[in-house]
Amino acid sequence: MIIKAKVTDRIATAVLYIIATLLILLLILFAGYIIYQGKSKLNLSFLTSEPNSLEAGGGIGPPLFNSIYIVVLSLAITLPIGLSAGIYMAEYAKPTKLTKLIRFSIEALASLPSIVIGLFGFLVFVQKTGWGFNIFSGALAVSILNLPVVTRICEDSIRNVPHSVKEASLAIGATHWQTIIRVLIPCAIPGLVTGLIITSGRVFGEAAALIFTSGVSGYPLDFTNFNPMDSSSPLNPFRPAETLAVFIWKVNSEGTAPDARLVADGASAVLIISVFLFNISSRILGKFLNNKFAGR
Amino acid sequence: MSKHRDNKNKRYFKNELLGKSVVTFFGVFLIILTISLVFFIASQGLSTFIIDKQSPFKFLFSSKWDPLREISKGGPAIGALVFIFGSISVSAIALLISTPFSVAISIFMSEISPNIGRKILQPVIEIFVGIPSVVYGWIGLTVLVPFISKLTLTLPFIDKDINTTGKGLLTGGLVLSIMIFPTIASISYDALKALPRDYKEASFALGATRWQSIRKVLIPAALPGMLTGIVLGLARAFGEALAVQMVIGNNILLPKSIFDRANTMTSVITMEMGNAVTGTLEANALWSLALLLLIISFLFIVIIHKIGAKGSFIK
Amino acid sequence: GSSNGGVISISGSSALLPLADNAAKEYMAKNSGSKITVNAGGSGQGLTQVYQGAVNIGNSDVYAEEKLKPEEAKELNDHIVCVVGIAAVVNPNVKVDNITSQQLIDIFTGKITNWKDVGGEDKKIVLINRPSNSGTRATFKKYALNGAEEAEGTALKEDQSGTVKQTVSQTDGSISYLAFSYLDDKTKALKLNGVEPTSENVASGSYPVWAYEHMYTKGEPTGLAKSFIDYMLSDDVQTNIVPKLKFIPIKDMKVKR
Amino acid sequence: MDKNLKIFTKNLDLFYGTNQALKKINIQIEENKVTALIGPSGCGKSTFLKTLNRMNDLIHNVKITGEVYLDNLNVYEQFDIVDLRKRVGMVFQKPNPFPMSIYDNIAYGPKIHGIKSKPKLDDIVEKSLKNAALWDEVKDRLKQSALGLSGGQQQRLCIARVLAVEPEVVLMDEPTSALDPISTLKIEDLIDELKEKYTIVIVTHNMQQAGRISDNTAFFLTGEIVEYNETEKIFNIPSDKRTEDYITGRFG
Amino acid sequence: MDKNLKIFTKNLDLFYGTNQALKKINIQIEENKVTALIGPSGCGKSTFLKTLNRMNDLIHNVKITGEVYLDNLNVYEQFDIVDLRKRVGMVFQKPNPFPMSIYDNIAYGPKIHGIKSKPKLDDIVEKSLKNAALWDEVKDRLKQSALGLSGGQQQRLCIARVLAVEPEVVLMDEPTSALDPISTLKIEDLIDELKEKYTIVIVTHNMQQAGRISDNTAFFLTGEIVEYNETEKIFNIPSDKRTEDYITGRFG
Ligand SMILES: Nc1ncnc2c1ncn2[C@@H]1O[C@H](COP(=O)(O)OP(=O)(O)OP(=O)(O)O)[C@@H](O)[C@H]1O
Ligand SMILES: Nc1ncnc2c1ncn2[C@@H]1O[C@H](COP(=O)(O)OP(=O)(O)OP(=O)(O)O)[C@@H](O)[C@H]1O
Ligand SMILES: [Mg+2]
Ligand SMILES: [Mg+2]
Ligand SMILES: O=P([O-])([O-])[O-]
Q: Above 0.95 for ipTM, yes or no?
């Protein structure tokens, strides 16, 4: 009997090891394949030049910039709101109906398909405001997508600060708010930063919510123009623009350039590499901040 | 004395009340945001039934979708059953494929080799989460679709009349299963990790093997958490748009087998919204689909809470 | 060129996007004061938005009358900027080069399901279709299928042009249709009744499957919108960009509809 | 025991939800004395300690009836909570320095209470660290993280942090239970010095420690004070059988 | 102390990574006796206890040298780990019932070891609960969740769970430290009964408990056994100054 149990144990362990190995292999294959397919495009001129629907040799400069720009804008929107809401949920929320409702809202927002949020953005930010497709509307839409995640991250990292530290501050006569601002948030920073970088990665790759808000195409930009009010400045948030992920989708569904496939491969490789970069930097930064705060 | 009071009030305002009010406002803002989302989507989505006087019953249960059909040929039809059925079945397939692997991985990470789990698998899972859905779609289209196409052509038991493009329910389900795998895996990993060490220790101390402990003690104890992960994975599969749209074949007929082409709610919205004229029945019907998606995703949350409540009953 | 400052926005047909986009780039390069934003979104959106005044020019693959209510369409001014030709395409492995109208109709209505019935080898025909609101499909249905409706129960298979190209190229036995701008050696364009689907044949009138591409304005165009549409019709665009993108210049057309 | 009363309570009851954790506590705590609270786990020692600086206000389903007086003022009615906590400092079981520099840990309290001048802060930091017998060990590394200190040093840092806001009463909840014997001794010595200036209330599970450092001892059992007296009497001639049982280790 | 040896160790060293937690432990544990392990926090009591049923195998960076013998067989070489743990049961500090019914908790072990017959299981459950002095309290609610029991009942349930697999040795790591006085007494009585059939090794931080229930006592300090002797001798005439200091509460 014991022998049988032990054999089962061995078999189960072996199976689990095999599955784990397969998973790792799958990722290596997946990422390796994408990067391999796109490697001929991994050069500076591809990364910086304009897309071209007429001839081969177009690049992904503006879409790449737009993706980054939307990440920055949406962080600028979600961080203050998400941090505030996270502080509220972690520190002030009493177990009342209101709290329950907020909690439900966070969960509901988090579970909404991004295309539904895209349509909402289309209706409200694009049509009702009369702005048309524009980056800012896109940033707002992905912010809605991201807000519950950011709120959760902020709430969790504040909650993860040891209770003893909070008690210490209160026991000295600090108000609750002073404790939050001066002790809890600084303590929560390592967790916050890692979480935020990872979610930024998700914004970077989002497409469905952006197709209907920031649009699927842009117009030529003047990368020497830093006046955000000027319509040809890349910093102008009220211009239509395609992000890298949207660009891949578009090239795939209606690309006319002769090298459309290669361009999509190259852009995918860039996206995958960005995901790696987001991950690695969050790890490194997280470790660094943790060490810094732990005084090592 | 009263000056002292004043100062004190000012200080209290600055050091506590102001901050508290601001964060409370943003907490409440989340409710407002959710309500306005529901309101706007509903206001569009309901006009199909209120303004265009279409039957909600037909919308849900008829499979004839042709919003532009001329009056002479029977007038517009907006039966969404094909899409609803497609969304459900493609998510179900994804879940069936993904769940065993995800749960296995979570067990591996928490119980078999926490070291490999933390150092290798966790980053791997995070990267899988981070890969944009268009990339999944693109790989699905360029690698999986030709592969499945070959399969449908060569395998003897597949009815060649159905579909040999390689696009279809199975392909969509496979792509989705990779996409939702990290969600399920990481949540069930958390559920396992959250179990007190006690359970494992107690079981080992009684002479149970590792697998016995996992199967008889740990999995039952972590089940509510795992189910939550599975429902969230399902929700994610249900809501995914582009990756599915690229590989499912977008056929407006009920699929005859898992190799057949199908369509989903998200997919048809993605493809047709741009060409629909605002305010027409066609556009309104697409909004109704969006409303339906919203309702279903809220349902998922309710289900998760039911599971959670059951879980807390055990504890 | 004439310096003509101002800002306009254009949106609509995704088929026309590359043309409008490239022309706009050229135009702005020549007229540094002007800003033209071109967006896709679909013909439906283009028509809606130009009617609502949200954009200055709405691009469409189809006549406004086919999408909007008659009283709405009346307010719009049509500017035909070029012609798009549409070809039936098959997977390169299909051993058929020519097809008759009747055969095409039979295939798309589900009467013929094997290539051997149209002179090819014994191979199942895989139909790949476009959404019912696609301009390409409307044109193909009208001029290649003579308006024939798919037989009840036959699949309506949806996809977008780029995906159609990709799918046809990798699915043995498949058939679909694409605008000329998507044609390359990944798919094989079929002769229709012996006529090759080329721009020359469209222009001469011997190849019938084509449609006008429209730029709509609300009322008479003014300012930059007017000069841009004029530019679209100028030789600059018509002899350079239009043929490069495999559209057919208006002035080449020896037939009219 | 009536002279120099610093704190006293009147019929203090405390409920966590419906669960009564303190029952009719009446205790009088003398100024500049060390009062020890002993009793088995869960008897309410920590809970009682926290009623004195209203740390229980943090927990929402707590209900308190009865009164607590500090210098004859009702702690729950006549005090602003910030003032109260400034006057009644607290040291916890596990050292809990903030993850900041040693200097910032000490300066935190004074800053919170409005002191901004750098020289003044420097002064307070030095004085508090000296009072907590830590100055010599850390004076060269004030800018380094407090988390790099040893457990015993951290606990003295926490004491210094409390002293920096110039409290009158210092509450200590098992301050040495996480420390090694040598650090424990240092803290015990420190407590002995501090009682000259401060009133100290200390919870300990170590009977011998209570015997060594306290002047008065209260024995808690399931939320009640069974016996309260001079330490010497409690340990040598306990008047209650349960006290005796506990002190001789019959349970707990 | 040489007759009826159940367990003995030879130069047992244990390292967590590079940190040595046990140093040259040589101890001889007598059959059907209660052996108490005492010492300050972190001295290695729990660590040592776990070497006896190889629970340390769960932690990956543990390195063990030296030998442990059970019935003259080397625990690390001549035993199958599952057999070993069946013969050497363990009760933990915090009661840790599985989140299942009372019945299933007890039946878990026998089932694991291959017993499937329902009547046989019923029998074992009843016998074990009786042995753990819990039967009367729970016999009417065997199908209810074990998590609904009180702390003391849970701990007895855990003991019953161990007894159900019929061990020879029972290791207990501070089994009463989370319990109230009355439950503690019940468990102490139980231990007294159990030693007729089982060999018991118990870690306790409560010196008086060690005095009350054990036959032999080992005093641990920073990973070493300072003194090991009959309990009476250890408490009355300790031969080592450190033992005396500890027992009289000078530290810890
Ligand atoms: N936040 C809380 N919510 C509910 N009950 C609590 C809470 N804190 C403590 N209790 C309960 O109140 C009682 C007294 O707890 P308290 O922490 O004061 O005991 P203690 O004497 O300090 O014990 P220990 O020596 O273990 O620290 C216990 O029964 C405990 O379970
Ligand atoms: N898993 C582990 N990894 C690394 N070090 C450990 C681990 N477990 C215990 N230690 C260390 O080994 C030493 C002995 O620990 P052990 O738990 O055996 O002490 P103990 O005598 O049982 O203390 P207590 O009375 O607090 O339970 C301690 O210094 C502890 O920090
Ligand atoms: Mg306490
Ligand atoms: Mg221990
Ligand atoms: O250009 P389309 O309308 O066929 O997408």
A: no
